[in-house]
Each structure stands twice: as structure tokens, then as C-alpha cells.
Design goal:
This protein is 41% helix and 13% strand. The protein is an alpha/beta fold and 404 residues long. It folds into two domains: 139 residues, Alpha-Beta Complex (Aspartate Aminotransferase, domain 1), CATH 3.90.1150.10; 241 residues, Aspartate Aminotransferase, domain 2, CATH 3.40.640. The chain contains 14 helices and twelve strands.
Length: 404
């Protein structure tokens, strides 16, 4: 058999492949696994979305046919209306919105639609793996923008070499951020992105999948709220985390009409778009906003508080994030030399607690692990007990000498 695509061989090992292998070994040993690795919501999809799906599938046979690649008109109009209500962003549903089979698909398809082989994309480091893997699959090259804790994990665009910026075609950024859980303090950050993009003729893709999973009064803005944003880029949204619809595979891209049209054209050759009955459930989800979204976010906030407080009591100083369903935890002092992958492997083998190694999100993620708040409340208590034993193992009891 001949060699496979060079693009496939360029891909790094998928973050969760090694972890899933270790989980299988743990299950085979009858180890009780507490999975905080993948950001896979454990709560059920709200009733309104499920009922809408059942009714549509049972009573509207026309929704069983091929959908439109760009998304059905009702879905796109509802998205445009929601973006207007939520962010004050006006959108043309016919030209500035396209439905996605989840935001991950849309990010990869965007790269394939606009990149020529060898063209460079600026990507935050650490980052959601689709941001750099999508570029590799498109035959492009990535240039890492370091996201440092001393800069609140925000990009310092001024440190990108002028020659690199000039030769680049696109930039992927994501706030609230996965994996670091960082947020933008205000919309002035987006103004800097727009000025940088205009100066260097870049496309900006802002991944805003966690806009509704926010805490403590923080309200995440949209990149498209800022004047000039639609001139240079698009924003991606997802139903997965906001409405516990990860398995439904639904999202959207909106913004610059030319970029949206390119993604729509690409999708029309590659797939038929999200199923119509799923899109209609998405309409029901957006119609339920903000109540449903806030209730789901409240669950994550409660879990965040419980886990952060518990880790602090163990002496593991983990920052309390204002958004996302993740904790971005620097490795505990005694474990820093071992690295994030070895730490995650040992924690799983010794305790059954699964975390994601930071290095899987790029070299800039080394020294951290990501914990996803995706298990039942009672399990956080169990996880903390196991982590305590892992970090502070009990000293063996000395045998008492017989005085007789």
C-alpha cells in the first residue's frame, strides 16, 4: 500500500488518543474512572430542543431530505436575530450567515476554503487543536502567537515579526479561550485585532463558542460588535456547550460575506450541511435564550467554585476562571519537572482521574493541565480525595516495637 497524504503525517497525535488508550486500560483493570479530560457536556440537552426534534422527525417528513449547505432560511434568520439581540450585531441572513455541522467542522472548512498550500496562518498557542490541525489539513503553515500568563493569555500582536505578518493570510483567536479560560477585558482588544488585520490584509476568525458560558457577571462580547470587524473577518458559534448539544453537531459562522460565501461553496461540494431537523432544534434553543443558557452556565459556575476551592485546600493554586467549562491548572510544584503528559498519565493510572495534558494544545500549553467540569457534582468530591492522595501520599506507618 502506498504512503498516505503528507498532510496526515504532518498532523500531531490527537490530544485524546493517548488518554483514551489509558482510559481503556483503566476500564480493563476495573478502575473507577472520573473523566475530566474532554469538554463533553454530561448534562442532557434541554427538553424544548429534544421535543422539537421528535416532533419534527415524526411529523415533518420533508425535513428528512437533503438540507441546504448554507442552512435553512429559518435557521439563518433566527441566528441573525439572536446576534442582534445578544450583541447588537446586524447580519444579513442570506449573505452573512452559514450553518455548520459544529464549529470544529466550520473552522477546518474555513481553512480549506481560503488557503493555498504553504500559506501561513497565525494561531494562538496554546489553542483548541482544530485551529492548527485545520490549517495543516488545508496544506497551510502555522505561526504560533504565544499566549502567556503574564499577559492574561491575550495575544501580543506587536511581537509578531513584520515579515511573518505580511506573509500570513489568516489569524485564529478564541475568547473566552479554550484551553486557558482567558477572557478579553473589553472590546478594545478587538480593535487592535482589526487594525492589525487591515494593516496586513488578514482574515480574522474569532471562535466564540463559549460566549454564553460565563460567570460572576462577566458578559463576553462579540468580535463583530466592533466597527470594521466584518471588513476583515468572521465569528464562529456553537450549540455544543451553551445548550448541551455537543452530539447534535450544530453551529454557525457569520460576518464577512465573502468569507461566508467561500465556506458555503466549499461545503456544497463536500457535505449537505446540518440536518434540517437538527437546525430546527437549534432554532428552539436560540428561542429559549437567555433562560436555558443561564441555567446551564450556573451549573458550571457551581462546579467551578467547588473544584477550585477544593484544589486550593490541597495547596494546588488553580485560578478561578470567568468563563468556559474548564480549569487551566499549572502543574503542582512537586510535579512540574515531569511535564504535563507524564503527569496526566500518572494521575490516570494511579487514581482514575482523567485530565487533559496542556502540551496537547500546543507547546505553549506545557506546564499545565486542563480540567473539564463535566461530571456529576458528587464526583468532584471523589476526584478531590483522589488528587489529595496523589499529591500528598500517606506516609507508611511505622511498626510499634514490642517492649516485652
Amino acid at each position: 500500500m502506498k504512503e498516505f497524504s503528507d498532510r496526515m503525517t504532518r498532523l500531531p497525535p490527537y490530544l485524546f488518543t493517548r488518554i483514551n488508550q489509558l482510559k481503556r486500560e483503566a476500564f480493563a483493570k476495573k478502575l473507577d474512572v472520573i473523566d475530566l479530560g474532554m469538554g463533553n457536556p454530561d448534562q442532557p440537552t434541554p427538553k424544548a430542543m429534544v421535543e422539537r426534534l421528535c416532533d419534527t422527525v415524526q411529523n415533518h417528513a420533508d425535513t428528512h431530505r437533503y438540507p441546504q449547505a448554507k442552512g435553512m432560511p429559518k435557521f439563518r434568520k433566527t441566528v441573525a436575530s439572536w446576534m442582534g439581540k445578544r450583541f447588537g450585531v446586524p447580519l444579513d441572513p442570506d449573505k452573512e450567515v452559514v450553518a455548520l455541522i459544529g464549529s470544529k467542522e466550520g473552522i477546518a472548512h474555513l481553512a480549506m476554503a481560503v488557503l493555498n498550500p504553504g500559506e501561513t496562518v497565525l494561531v494562538g498557542d496554546p489553542a483548541y487543536p482544530a485551529h492548527f490541525n485545520g490549517v495543516i489539513l488545508a496544506g497551510g503553515e502555522t505561526y504560533s502567537i504565544p499566549l502567556k500568563p503574564e499577559n492574561e493569555f491575550l495575544p501580543d500582536l506587536g511581537k509578531i515579526p513584520e515579515t511573518v505578518a505580511r506573509q500570513s493570510k489568516m489569524m485564529f483567536l478564541n475568547y473566552p479561550n479554550n484551553p486557558t479560560a482567558a477572557v478579553v477585558p473589553d472590546k478594545s482588544v478587538f480593535k487592535d485585532w482589526i487594525a492589525f488585520a487591515k494593516k496586513h490584509d488578514l482574515i480574522v476568525c474569532h471562535d466564540n463558542a463559549y460566549s454564553e458560558v460565563t460567570f460572576d457577571g462577566y458578559v463576553a462580547p462579540s468580535f463583530l460588535e466592533v466597527d470594521g470587524a466584518k471588513d476583515v473577518g468572521v465569528e464562529v458559534h456553537s450549540f455544543s456547550k451553551t445548550y448541551n448539544m455537543a452530539g447534535w453537531r450544530l453551529g454557525w459562522m457569520c460576518g464577512n460575506a465573502k468569507v461566508v460565501a467561500a465556506v458555503e461553496k466549499f461545503k456544497s461540494f463536500l457535505d449537505y450541511g446540518a440536518p434540517t431537523f437538527v437546525q430546527l432544534s437549534g432554532v428552539a434553543a436560540l428561542d429559549s435564550w437567555p433562560d436555558t443558557a443561564r441555567a446551564i452556565a450556573a451549573v458550571y459556575q457551581h462546579r467551578r467554585d467547588r473544584m477550585v476551592e477544593g484544589l486550593h485546600k490541597l495547596g494546588w493554586a488553580v485560578p478561578k476562571p470567568k468563563a468556559t467549562m474548564y480549569l487551566w491548572a499549572p502543574l503542582p510544584e512537586p510535579c512540574r519537572a515531569m511535564g504535563s503528559l507524564a503527569f496526566a498519565e500518572k494521575l490516570l493510572r494511579d487514581t482514575g482521574v482523567v485530565v487533559a495534558p496542556g502540551v496537547g494544545f500546543g507547546p505553549g500549553g506545557e506546564g499545565y493541565v486542563r480540567m473539564a467540569l463535566v461530571t456529576h457534582d458528587n464526583r468532584f468530591h471523589d476526584a478531590l480525595l483522589r488528587i489529595k492522595k496523589f499529591l500528598v501520599p500517606e506516609k507508611p506507618k511505622q511498626a510499634v516495637k514490642n517492649k516485652s
